[in-house]
Fold this protein.
Amino acid sequence: MANPLTDLVLPAAAARFVLLANHVLTAAPVATDRLKVRHGRTLRVEVDGWRIPLPPPPPMTLRITPAGLLEAVAADEPGADQPDLRLRVDASQPLSAARSLASGQVPEVHVEGDAALAADITWILANVRWDIAADLERVVGGPLGDTVARAGEQVLAAARGLVQGVAGAVRKP
């Protein structure tokens, strides 16, 4: 039976994740330079500690391209379940993770696998940042970019309140 969440939303979200990751990487040429020498290698992003009352996102396998960017690997592609590197993202505190992402920080990530690739990915996670406000400013202009960024923070705060309310209601017997 078809499931709209897994059939439509998750592939679209995965594609957006890859676009966002590549946007961040292209803003830091040193990051793509580090990845170019690892082209063809794969990494798998997994979510640990999922507590939201929705299905957790499935693991996502990514391949490094010759340009030092990322591309999604189909789950049924040979080797997709045996990546060179595993990245396990801690999702036990989703609001804290969303706040970290919104401020350009990376949530806690456990890296395991190929040592050289792990060193490069760890360096990228520690040193490459996404400046949301600067990107918005480039796209929509200074004051409007600030306004949009503030509105995003308010939406995030409202979402936090909603999730806390739902979580409280789910926990009550």
Summary: The helical segments are 4-26, 29-36, 94-102, 115-127, 132-140, 142-171. The CA atoms of residues 144 and 170 lie 38 Å apart.
